[in-house]
Amino acid sequence: MTLPDGVDWPEFQPGWVWLVGAGPGDPGLLTLHAVNALRQADVIVHDALVDPRILAWARPDAELLFAGKRGGKPSPRQKDISLTLVELARRGLRVLRLKGGDPFVFGRGGEEGQTLVQHGVPLRVVPGITAGIGGLAYAGIPATHRDVNQSITFLTGHDQTGEAPGALDWDAIARGSQVIVMYMAMKHLDRIARRLIAAGRDPDEPVAIVTRATLPDQFVLETRLARAAEDARAAGVEPPAIVCVGRVVLLRQALEWAEGVAPRNLDPLGLGRPVEER
């Protein structure tokens, strides 16, 4: 891939670490700054969710180091990954830390960045499209819609211990979050749903679960809050997945563009008037 002319592309200096977001999956969603990093990096430390087609854009002589994590499977420790970045940079290498989605959105890029700073390693951050926005868009679900929500809450479905986050005020989230988008929530989805319903959330509220987001085999399960976990098990849905709770899920009936099918419902919100009149 040739980068466009007329742009002062940053030079990747030896001894630097660039924390780069690879986006939710589709290689076409990679930023040009990310491509520039791939073209210059000596070594690429990448996550499991980085599409192999993206890695194919690296320099032919670049070293690829796998640092992927999968829930319930043996994975590198975060501390070891961070210190590996420090070690590689101190060898004078151009180190690209390539992470799925955005490095600063539930990607632990902030922790890695802190470690680099503490060891005197210079860094650059290249944002990426996070799955909680890009994945929903490919599912035909807008993260915000004027007729539905003026706010959105992003949260993780587990904390440092692997359990459902105990520090979150679930009652406040249930009451105040018009749309909830959850990362890494499949393991505790039943518990989270029951907690939200107990705090006043409608058991019949629409839910979408998106797996393999933005990829050709993307799968979207449409369900309701009270039966989301049960339906996910029945459908064989496995993580990683994005879970969206809220009425914006209904808009998939009209905006299911990636599936190439005709709209199922031109007025899924039941507003009874054309969009331009709202």
Explain how this protein is built:
The chain is of the alpha/beta class and 278 residues long. The protein folds into two domains: 17-129, Cobalt-precorrin-4 Transmethylase, domain 1 (3-Layer(aba) Sandwich), CATH 3.40.1010; 132-277, 2-Layer Sandwich (Methyltransferase, Cobalt-precorrin-4 Transmethylase, Domain 2). 26% of the residues lie in helices and 17% in strands. It is built from nine helices and ten strands. The chain has helices at residues 32-40, 52-55, 78-90, 109-118, 131-138, 170-176, 189-198, 228-234, 252-255; strands at 17-21, 43-46, 63-66, 95-99, 123-126, 153-156, 180-183, 206-211, 219-224, 241-245. Strands 3-2-4-1-5 form a five-stranded parallel beta sheet, with helices on both faces. It has a five-stranded mixed beta sheet with strand order 6-7-10-8-9, sandwiched between helices. Strand 2 (43-46), helix 2 and strand 3 (63-66) form a beta-alpha-beta unit. Helix 3 crosses helix 4 (109-118) and helix 6 (170-176) crosses helix 7 (189-198). The longest helix is centred in the first third of the chain and has 13 residues, at 78-90. The radius of gyration is 20 Å and the shape is globular. Its EC number is 2.1.1.107. This is uroporphyrinogen-III C-methyltransferase. One of its GO terms (biological process) is siroheme biosynthetic process. Pathway: Cofactor biosynthesis; adenosylcobalamin biosynthesis; precorrin-2 from uroporphyrinogen III: step 1/1; Porphyrin-containing compound metabolism; siroheme biosynthesis; precorrin-2 from uroporphyrinogen III: step 1/1. GO terms for molecular function: uroporphyrin-III C-methyltransferase activity.
